[in-house]
Amino acid sequence: MSLPPIERPKVLPFRPRQGQRVPYRRRSPLRRLLVPFAAALATVVLPLAAVQWLLSTPRLALVEIEAVPDAAAPGGPRVSREQVLDALAPLVGRNLLRLDLGRVQEELAGHPWVRAVAVRKELPHRLRVEIEERRAAALYQAAEGLIYVDGEGRPIAPLAPWDEVDLVVISGGGTPAAGLRTPLAAALAVAGELAAVKPAWAEGLSEIEVLSPQDFRLVIDRVPFPLLVRAGALERRVRRLETLLPQITTRYAAVKAVDLRFSRRIIIEPADHPQGGPPTTSQHGV
To answer: N or C terminus: fewer CB in 10 A for the chain?
Structure first.
């Protein structure tokens, strides 16, 4: 016996009676205030609180400083690991995130041999400091003693009594207060000019005396007398002097100086000129 099919119930649309109000639930005013407050808390307050915690937590305090001296410095580093650690000791314990790397560089820039400082933070509590030192190119003979000079003619620091170096000594040119850098840089430029023309002579260059902004007196181990030279005019004069060297050493027992500053002649001043009289000179065309 089969049952008759069940018909789906029909849902009649709700229609309120005329004049009858439909009840509804009002939102709580407190809830309406809490929703935007909670959104602001999640987007602003909590991140700020997290940042404040990171900038103040002891877990990110500076504990270890890794100082890396300049291993490529000639003769060994002059800025030691201990000197770096002593200079940065007041920074230990400070929050690493808040640590100003510029201040770290300033703390070390006062050392005369420091040329550049590379600083890197390594969370959670380590700071790595790499030192690049200035390179000494010469020594300057000042009134108070010898001073190291870099390749740009800037004084670095006094020569220590225990230092053993083989550098050219520059003299003359004024004092540091009178603007020493320009004549020292000019003297180093003349040394570079000599190295380009005659490298073997440049290796034996031991002294440079600054006579004027353009004129210099050179003492070279491989040349038996000083040379008076002018900046920018060494190439032709030095090559000509090289061809005359055998004649000069044969003809003169001793030579006080050879002047290469003139364009068409080389002036030789013998060391054994008559007592009390003017020095005798010999000229050779260039």
So the answer is: N
